[in-house]
Amino acid sequence: MFSSISSSVILEYKKLKNNQSKISSILVSACLAGVKCRYDGADSYNSQLMQELKDSELIICCPELLGGLSVPRTPCNIQGVLGNEVLLGNAKVIGVDNKDYTECYIYGAKKALEIALKHNVQKAFLKQKSPSCGCGQIYSHDGTHLINGDGILAALLKQNGIEIISL
Ligand code: SF4
C-alpha cells in the first residue's frame, strides 16, 4: 500500500514495463490502490481488488490530482446535472467553498483518458460515488444524497468504450 504521494501529479504507471503499449492494461482509481489521494488525505484501499489484480499491468491514477488539485483539497460536487453534462459545458463542479473547479476536473479526466488510450486500457476499476470516478451513482449537488449518474472520468471512459467496474 502506498503511504504517501511522492509528487504533485501521479503515478501513471505502477507495473507498466517499457513501451508495452500494445498490452491491454487495467486502470484503477489510485485511492482504491491505497494512494492517500482523497480530498481528506485518506485512501480507499481495497485489498481484495489489489490481490485479484496483482499479476495485471495496472495504470493507477487519480484524475483530480492529474487536474492539478492537491491533497487535502476542497470537496466538490457536480452542480445541476451529471458528469457527461460537465463535459458538454452544461454543468459545473463547485466546491463547498463555492469556487468553480470545473476546469481542473475536466482537464484531469481528459489526461486520464489520454493515458488510458495510450496504454490500450479496456477495463477500469473506479471508486464509487466520486464526482470524478463515480459510476452509476454520485453525490447530489449539495452532497446530501446519492443520485443516478456518472462522474466526469467515468462518463469520459464510457464514451470511449472502456468498461467500468464501480467499487
Ligand atoms: S475517487 Fe478518483 S478522484 Fe477521488 S481520490 Fe479516488 S482516484 Fe482520486
Write up this protein:
The structure is a single chain. With 167 residues, this protein is α/β, with parallel strands linked by helices. The protein has five helices and eight strands, in the order βαβαβαβαβββαβ. The protein has helices spanning 47-52, 63-66, 83-87, 102-118, 152-159; strands spanning 26-29, 58-61, 76-79, 92-95, 123-126, 137-139, 146-148, 163-166. Helix 1 links the parallel strand 1 (26-29) and strand 2 (58-61). The model is unreliable at 1-17 (pLDDT under 50). Bound molecules: iron/sulfur cluster. Residues 29-31, 37-38, 62-64, 127, 130, 132-133 line the site of iron/sulfur cluster.
Outline of the structure:
The chain has 167 residues and is of the alpha/beta class. It has 5 helices and 8 strands.
Please give a handful of descriptors for the protein shown.
binds iron/sulfur cluster; globular; four-stranded parallel beta sheet; 167 residues; 18% strand; alpha/beta
List the helices and strands and how they pair.
Elements: E1 26-29, H1 47-52, E2 58-61, H2 63-66, E3 76-79, H3 83-87, E4 92-95, H4 102-118, E5 123-126, E6 137-139, E7 146-148, H5 152-159, E8 163-166
Helix pairs in contact: 4-5
The protein binds iron/sulfur cluster.
Q: Going across the biggest sheet, name each strand in turn.
A: 2-1-5-8
What is the distance, rounded to the nearest whole angstrom, between the alpha carbons of the first and last residues?
Answer: 17 Å
Number of distinct helices: 5
Oligomerization status of the protein chains: single chain
Global morphology: globular
Structural class: alpha/beta
Q: How would you state the average pLDDT, rounded?
A: 87
Number of strands: 8
- What proportion of the residues form beta strands (DSSP E)? 15-25%
**Largest beta-sheet details:** 4 strands, parallel
Run of helices and strands: EHEHEHEHEEEHE
